[in-house]
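Practice problem: predict the structure.
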Amino acid sequence: MTTAERTATREEESAHTPQEPPEAERAPGTGEAGAQEDLAPSTEEAPSARERREEEGEGRNGRRRGRRDKGRRRRAAAQERDDEEEGSNELAGISLHLREVAAMSPNELLLKAESLGIDNAVGMRKQEQLSAILRAHARRGGTIFGEGVLETLPDGYGFLRSVDVNYLAGPDDIFVSTQQVRRMLLRKGDTVVGEIRPPRRGEKYFALKSIDSVNGVPPEEARRRVLFDNLTPLYPDERLRMEIDDPACKDRTGRVIDIIAPIGKGQRGLLVAPPRTGKTVMLQSIAHSIERNHPEVVLMVLLIDERPEEVTDMKRSVKGEVVSSTFDEPAKNHVQVAETVIEKAKRLVEHGRDVVILLDSITRLARAYNAVVPSSGKVLSGGVDSNALQRPKRFFGAARNIEGGGSLTIIATALIDTGSKMDEVIFEEFKGTGNMELHLSRKLVEKRIFPAIDIAPSGTRKEELLTPADQLSRIWVLRKLLSQMGTVDSMEFLLDKMRKTKCNQEFFDQMNS
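Answer:
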């Protein structure tokens, strides 16, 4: 190609190439100025971004509302299915008690399940059988009743605990809603009886439908009671008679207690005992005397950190309520059982009832509190935390005689001479808190003299309020005589005189002659 041809070709290409417009004619957003304009925030696009974010938030809220509505519809449908199942009135008017069903043997549960037409009951666990029986009973129009002692939780709702499991949490507990607790002004320790229903789908516990009674009185009356802490305490002025009017009874423990250390309603007594001196047997004797002479009294026996065989023996020999937490259970169970029992007793006293708690032993209860209380960094001798004894003192200090009716009596055993420094510290802390002390002697036990009561240190404060004036003067004369003897001789002398008389009144009459 010649030079002229190359020149003509370049002119032709330049003619077909588009030319850039001048600066003034360029479109906005191009060039260096346009790039800076693109980087600057656009005021026209900001509202649309906010709208998009609001739309996304509304979408998320809508999805949440949709899930909640779906859950409500699902629960409502399940409730409708449950209500449809309750169409039969075959068992209308027939009631079933939860405790009675729970106390049935495995064979009795199977027979009951078969009578209600429950399939595959043999392959169910006891809790499943219990739930199936109550469901079938309610589905056929029957009513179910339950009772228990209320334990409220921090969230406001609570559960009715059963004495059959020592007021500990169990699968047979009855759920009490927050609305029921607030509406009926229920408190921890209330004994509630009412109609219940089986757990529905997704529920775990039986639920309380209606309340028939609270602490043995109608719910409306229970709302008007006075709080225990607002009641006025007084000295005990009504005697709990320990002597049993039975000539065939060879146990003279009650007669000795009536003379040496009388017990009144509202007494706060300590039974100070070394090991193996018969303190548990003496508690049984006191329980039998109260059952025999004062049937109006609500008797409760609380065994803390004791042996299982002693618990069985106490349950078989005492008709009152026996609550226990044996030595193989954790300390938190000891504390929970004790606090439930004392709260139940307080609620009964608020209704004017006379309650007696026999505690064995307060030393081991204090040990349990010492194990569960948060450490304060201040430790007394024997390893006792400085804050550990506050709650057991509150337990023991609840015993009092109430002005206008009602009383709470606590007779607690305190262990001494165990070789433990902690037990000595606990006893010294409780030594001056009671208004009655009954000391047992190892010397008397070694000589097989029962009851092994050490007469000299035993006694009751304000005994003139419990003992008639004519008997009181003779008791003082008797004490002066016995103080000149030793521990063994004085008890032998007193028991010898009692064997020759049928009752304490005859014993005092012979003193005049």
